[in-house]
Amino acid sequence: MDEIPVIKTRPKGRSLTQNMLIPSEEMVVRALWAAPPGQLSAVGEVRKALASQYGADACCPITVQRHLAQISENGTAPFWRVVDPDRPFARRMKGGPERIRQRLEEEERAVK
Q1: Residue 17 β-bridge partners
Q2: What is the pLDDT of residues 32-91, one digit of tens each?
Q3: Element (H, E) at 59
Q4: Among 81, 107, 79, residue whose Cα is nearest residue 93
Q5: Helix/strand/coil for 17
Q6: End-to-end CA separation in angstroms for the chain
Q7: Do 86 and 108 form a contact (C-beta atoms < 8 A)?
Q8: Which residues lie closer than 8 Å to 49 by C-beta, 6 or more apart?
């Protein structure tokens, strides 16, 4: 961990607060490379793992979605491992749901 995580305290409910990790794109890239190839992992699990790794209660879902869209454009990491092609968000990825399905199938064949 060579970068300093950005963690903001925000309200959660009436009287509670939580520490929210605002991940950098590089943090998301590393998490994508760590996801198992050839299978769809839940993006929520990736966010939980990032939050836990950096000592936060949660990881900002909006920031992660923005980074995933950017990563799909520049091709720096296997975003298809965490974007469900059957969900509307997949349409925001470069190549859309078809590309995600294709890349997952290619990885699955390579792993076997």
Answers
A1: 11
A2: 999 999 999 999 999 999 999 999 999 999 999 999 999 999 999 999 999 999 999 999
A3: strand 58-59
A4: 79
A5: strand
A6: 32
A7: no
A8: 31
